Amino acid sequence: MSAVLKLNIAHKFSRASAQYIKHANVQQRSAEILFAGLNRRYNTMLDLGAGPMQHHGVLSQKCDTLVALDLSEGMLKQGPASAMKVCADMDALPLQAESVECVFSNFAMQWSSDLPTLFSRLNTVLKAGGSAHLSIVIDGSLREIAKAWQGVDGHCHVNQFTRFEDIQQIARQAGFSIRSMSKRCLVDIYNTPREALKSVKSIGANQLNNADTRRGLVGKESYQALLKAYPLVDGFAHVSYEVAFLELTK
Q1: Model pTM?
Q2: Computed over its alpha carbons, how large is the radius of gyration of the chain?
Q3: Which of 30, 147, 199, 225 lies at 20 to 30 Å from 38 by C-alpha?
């Protein structure tokens, strides 16, 4: 991923920061699945891709020291002023080796431009016996939006995410032991296609992570065609996220 795309992602999420929590319904359900695996107290925890720090309260109760890291300064500003915050790119993780006991990352690592290197780096910063609790958006997500665009111009306008099987292999190659790994489809349901598309924009997920992915057309006619082509289920507009859940140990 180029530096320009990284800056675009940071800008997109900063703009979405004020309204992110209101629309992050699937993200909250994903976080609750991860919370269930945090069954002990940790010394130092890294919240990787912390966003607006909506999980700060829960995670603070699970560790002595919590470090929130995010690419977007606007997102981090939504969190408590007293919190320990690091505005940085996860692909250039500014942490020392064996400096944290636990890594928590919810709906963030799909934005990495180099997942194998990121997994290896997480293994490095973890202490021996440390654990990582991760949720990662994977291939097959946003398929309703992709299908709607197919009805407009036949091109792909959504992100292409990593396959579940590839993430499993990447984690093992990075030196992790996999305590558990599963995938689930989490679905948001809206009354209209317009609301469904707005939800994706409101959480910044409409930012494309690949320069080869075709940008959405902005014309009024194209947008109306997109709404018309959006597939409905019993009259409602679904937004589906395929999510990999991993509990890893070093």
Answers
A1: 0.89
A2: 18
A3: 199
